[in-house]
């Protein structure tokens, strides 16, 4: 009859050490990237979301929604027509689409 194999002493301790260190390491790796995206999202890229919608920081949900609807109607790519004296970001259909996306992002962030 063959003798039972004796467990190796060195491999078990190192394996358990990795199991202890792995969860905190994974947690750090998972949280670093989303935190940076959150900070950028709060400011709608480089601009302040409240400034994009043209409302104050004390604006309520209704005022934010009203400002969003007005700007979305104005810069929607399917309905955009330049107004005389329009000096906003929507001077061309392409920039109107960019302005529409910026307004939509600001609203999604603040709502």
Automatic annotation (TrEMBL):
Q: How does it sit in the bilayer?
A: Multi-pass membrane protein
Name where it mostly resides: membrane
* Top-rank lineage group of the source organism: Eukaryota
Keywords, sorted A to Z: Chaperone, Membrane, Signal, Transmembrane, Transmembrane helix
InterPro entries, per the entry: DnaJ_domain, DNAJC25-like, J_dom_sf
Task: Please report the stretch or stretches of sequence annotated as the J domain.
Answer: 48-111
Transmembrane helix among the record's keywords?
A: yes
- Specify the signal sequence span: 1-37
Q: Which SMART domains does the record match to this protein? A: DnaJ
* Location within or outside the cell: Membrane
The record's similarity note reads: Belongs to the DNAJC25 family.
List the protein's name.
Answer: DnaJ homolog subfamily C member 25
């Amino acid at each position: 009859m063959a003798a039972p194999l004796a467990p190796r002493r060195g491999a078990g301790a190192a394996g358990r050490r990795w199991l202890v260190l792995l969860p905190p390491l994974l947690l750090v790796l998972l949280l670093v990237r989303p935190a940076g995206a959150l900070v950028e999202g709060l400011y709608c890229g480089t601009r302040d979301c409240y400034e994009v919608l043209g409302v104050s920081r004390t604006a309520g949900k209704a005022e934010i929604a009203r400002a969003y609807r007005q700007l979305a109607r104005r810069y929607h790519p399917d309905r955009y027509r330049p107004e005389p004296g329009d000096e906003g970001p929507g001077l061309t259909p392409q920039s109107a689409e960019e302005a529409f996306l910026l307004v939509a992002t600001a609203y999604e962030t603040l709502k």
